[in-house]
From TrEMBL, chains A, B:
This is Proline--tRNA ligase. It comes from Aestuariibaculum marinum. It is found in: Cytoplasm. One of its GO terms (biological process) is prolyl-tRNA aminoacylation. The gene is proS. Residues 27-295 form the Aminoacyl-transfer RNA synthetases class-II family profile domain.
Length: 492, 492
């Protein structure tokens, strides 16, 4: 298989699919819609997990683990939630296989081993968790409960794409319980903020924080906060959501607490999650026609060293220099790999590390040995320079920070130049067709208008930005009064 | 619910169940046989994961993620493996729910949404992984593949117990592919060694390394290495297994590689795993009638500080002292928590931390403030001493090491004093009934004898120890010749 990717301008979607597979991030599996996350892709996901997990713990959360299965009777308890997910549920109906009497060597479901009650493979865990919380919560002393779970979930999507939409995906889901509405609302906002900070600081992806309209809200939520990012092709991507669930789940599962004054009341709830979908956002924000571009904060290897040699003697000398560089870099907390594979030539190694987005590449050849230098190549700008060994660690330390910032600023500039304010529906359609990106427009606040615009343009309201101007106007479609602009876009 | 546990001598099994629930480790869920791992239990599991993950990476392994589901046709490809797990498989047959026309407000499986091919919820992942490896392996250059996965698996067990045997459990499963038989064998042994080191060094659990007999082998393995531990009630517990799979899966999934010489051959395989079952082993090795006893290496909090005060002024002073202690301990890498909850009295806090196995407890009261001392209580020995602040950090640092060693040595002494060599079947039965523990006895090497002994005594061959004496003898049951002793026991 050629390492060369289809260019983004030729076919963005094809470019994405090829990149994911060729950079060894993930691939399709034998199970419809389920992916295999390959070691390199998983290593990036692990970096994301580690940072997020730290941020969750710093904000007072603990991890726990709840069952994969949700009995049907619990699943259907919160009606809106059930309605929202019923159409895409994998359902376990049997608990045993047996030899197929008609087909020797084959197995079939044992008809005797039918479950009394079907089990839904969790598409999200509110139901099983709130059923558990009922036993954990008696009084205000038991609150708040601040729990997160790292888990796999299954949503039987019909059209799937690696990382972006898969039948099984990995995620974290926070589920919290509070005494008051104000506390729960504050938690939902705090966690959306955590997601925004993570996206911007570690993923180098600028995001807009906002709330979803009713039609885009999580099934069972009173309010859904979100972070929305813009991909290079001008389509938006929902990168994380944090839901204020009101007392919906507490009521569905009868979770009450006794207040300090002895009054019984339903508990207030939030839930919030990000998933392996973030991998898709990462790829489509920074990468180029040569492959993946990784922000140093999330690169499994921030630096790779490639030796260029003809004799074993040269290799020995290069190895000695490489060892020195590695120990200096590691002392600074910089991750580095010495790619001394003998099965690949330097050119093939260069191509692979470029495709896989290693932020900095060091090449050391005989000339470098003589001069006390190395060649340092930067993945994001594809520029090279010669650096003397004395300054190498400092240079690399500074460059990694610079790359992280550059990637963010570049993405920010692209995003900001792709937010277009429009006043008419003609302009609206024109932007969608020619410029793409977010459209900032007035909306009359009705479901009907939102639906009609979606029908006509495929654009949806990505969010009502939290930092909305109090600018009154008229709806871009209906001409009715509007209290402020919202962000429309075509979306992943 | 009373915090007091049933004593071990009264009812070991009841003691275990009560401890797991009351120490907030885990509880049963609404799903038959599936547990909820509560935050405190999960925090211990996270410590185990972190150490194991580090050890796997240090031995050259990378993490990846494969689908939860195994299509039936792949599941049945390796016959012995399929046969071994078919009887306990949860099976997904449908992918959608719909409103039940007969029961308003209820859902039912949509009969139109039946899967063409049933999906088995993975009981183990050899099938789906080896089906993937076929595409990853062409030549010797692609080998070895050294991959681990952290995942949930489902085995529909009829009798379940928290941590020890649950329908869903968390585990890691390594799956490696090699050029030669020798390499694969070496890998299987290396990983069994890693497990033994982890058990002894971090869990403070002495283990016997050995191989399983044919009847106890993993379904589809050529050889199963294992680590076997002894619980306080004299029953054995299999704590980890590492399988040499030969070419069985390579043949079932047609995974061949071209050697350096261009010859095509099937790949050699291993798989190895440990699970949340280790939590059960940890509990049943060290804990006592007062609750959990944790080795410091795996304690979420190694030290807890409880303030004893009557006035806010005293609390302020104690807080100041506690902050100093915490900063000193944390600088040494010791984890510590200041339990300044106002909802609980000191006595209740002491009881809770004892029940939850915190290795060291510091109490600071007004007298201590005056004297520049604290009271230091050790969980494993239930002893207390008064320590001056100047020596506190050093004392704690030393004590944590001492506790870790003491726990291991105590368990080792118990284990070693519960390995009994017997020569006759009368002695065999007598030990099982009165002394319990491992029985070291000669066995004729046949399945029949093993089966017969199991039938008569419920004891099974836990392993053929790797460090087996080359002592010839006669089988304890059949009187036929034997080449060495094996370890029998009743087991979890």
């Amino acid at each position: 298989m050629s390492k060369k990717l289809t260019s983004r301008s030729e076919d963005y979607s094809k470019w994405y699919n090829e990149l994911v597979v060729k950079a060894d991030l993930a691939e399709n599996s034998a199970v419809r819609g389920c992916m295999v996350i390959k070691p390199y892709g998983y290593a990036i996901w692990e970096k994301m997990q580690a940072e997020l997990d730290r941020m969750f713990k710093e904000t007072g959360h603990q991890n726990a683990y709840f069952p994969l299965f949700v009995p049907k009777s619990l699943f259907e308890a919160e009606e809106k939630n059930a309605e929202g997910f019923a159409k895409e549920c994998a359902v376990v109906t049997h608990y045993r296989l047996q030899n197929d009497p008609d087909k020797p060597g084959k197995l079939r479901v044992d008809p005797e081993a039918k479950l009394e009650e079907e089990l839904v493979v969790r598409p999200t865990s509110e139901a099983i968790i709130w059923n558990t919380y009922r036993n954990w919560i008696q009084s205000y002393r038991d609150l708040p409960i601040l729990i997160n779970q790292w888990a796999n979930v299954v949503r039987w999507e019909m059209r799937t794409r690696l990382f972006l939409r898969t039948a099984e995906f990995l995620w974290q889901e926070g589920h919290t319980a509070h005494e008051t509405k104000a506390e729960a609302l504050a938690e939902a906002k705090t966690m959306n903020n955590v997601y925004a900070t993570f996206a911007e600081k570690f993923m180098a992806i600028p995001v807009v924080q906002g709330v979803k309209t009713e039609s885009e809200r999580f099934a069972g939520a009173v309010e859904t906060y979100c972070i929305e990012a813009l991909m290079q092709d001008g389509k938006a991507l929902q990168a994380g959501t944090s839901h204020f669930l009101g007392q919906n789940f507490a009521k569905a599962f009868d979770v009450k607490y006794a207040s300090k004054e002895g009054k019984q009341d339903y508990v207030w709830a939030t839930s919030w999650g990000v998933s392996t979908r973030l991998m898709g956002a990462l790829i489509m924000t920074h990468s180029d026609d040569n492959g993946l571009v990784l922000p140093p904060s999330l690169a499994p290897n921030q630096v790779v060293i490639v030796p260029i040699y003809k004799s074993d003697e040269d290799l020995d000398k290069i190895t000695e220099v490489a060892n020195g560089i590695m120990s200096d870099l590691r002392a600074k907390g910089i991750s580095v790999k010495f790619d001394n594979r003998t099965t690949q030539r330097p050119g093939a190694k260069f191509a692979q590390h470029e495709l896989q987005g290693v932020p900095l590449r060091i090449a050391i050849g005989p000339k470098d040995l003589a001069n006390g230098t190395v060649e340092l190549a930067r993945r994001d700008t594809l520029t090279k320079s010669v650096v003397t060994l004395d300054y190498l660690t400092t240079t690399i330390n500074d460059l990694l920070k610079e790359i992280q910032e550059t990637l963010f600023n570049k993405a920010l500039e692209f995003r900001d130049s792709h937010i277009t304010e429009v006043e008419t529906f003609e302009e609206f359609k024109d932007v969608l067709e020619n410029k793409t990106g977010f459209i900032s427009a007035h909306w009359d606040g009705t479901n009907e208008t939102e639906e009609k615009i979606k029908e006509l343009t495929k654009a949806t309201i990505r969010c009502i930005p939290l930092e909305m101007n109090d600018e009154e106007g008229v709806c871009v479609y209906s001409g009715k009064p509007s209290k402020g602009r919202v962000l429309f876009a075509k979306a992943y």
